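Student: Please help interpret what follows.
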Amino acid sequence: MARPHIEFIQTQNVDWRERPDGVLEKLLSYDPLSTDATLIVRLPPGFVSGPRTAGEPAFEYFVLDGSVTVDELPCARHAYGFIPQGNGLGAVSSQDGATLLVFRHALDDPNAHAECADAIAIDTARMPWDTSTYDPKLGHLRLARKVLRLGPNDSGRTFLLTGLPHGVPDETHLPTETHHHCEEAFMLQGEMWAPEGRMRQGAYFFRPPNIVHGPHVSETGFLQIMRSPGSNRVVNQWSDDLKPLPIGAAYAPVAPEGTPAEWLRPLDNAPVY
């Protein structure tokens, strides 16, 4: 069973739940038949994790605030890492506390095991932005990206995506798009208009393959972290029909049955997370 379509929630509306070790979690999306999931994880000051076992799944992390130490490597805000399954790495500590976005992989994912996938640790602030390969149909957003990870065997890409302010075209209508792979994103800064409403800082979506979405425009600019599970390259398939620009669209989230009602509240003045 795959993860359901969520488009989009403001994660500020998701309640924290406390683990026995004092860590707080917000579970944003998950596959009920595996360990595949996306979470916001808040580490308390003085947190020290125990040793990881071979039976724990691989995970990616992105530091939203605070600082952590991962395998004796200090990681400040916007640091990114990938810890494969079965390599004994991934010991985490935080002296002053930190908030992480965590992408947890499935236990049965062969592309996330140590014999196939390499560990990664990146200070993303030191990476250059790449503006070379974006689709002309997205030119109004003036995009740039930083590729953080390419999974083995075309298993998925993780990257930062940014767009400049005033990303609104002269046209009043644009095509929609689909992808043959999943797509997932968390809004780090800024805002973007979608047919489902205005995505603010903390907005999150998960799209299964072949979900029609867009068009998207941004008056303020934005920065988000994205993943494309199932493909190392985002492949855009464009519609022939055009849809109006969504500026001013009312919040109309798509969420699976049983989603708590409080998750689907509009958010006019968003706190940080």
Observations:
- The first strand starts at residue 6 and ends at 10.
- The mean pLDDT is 95.
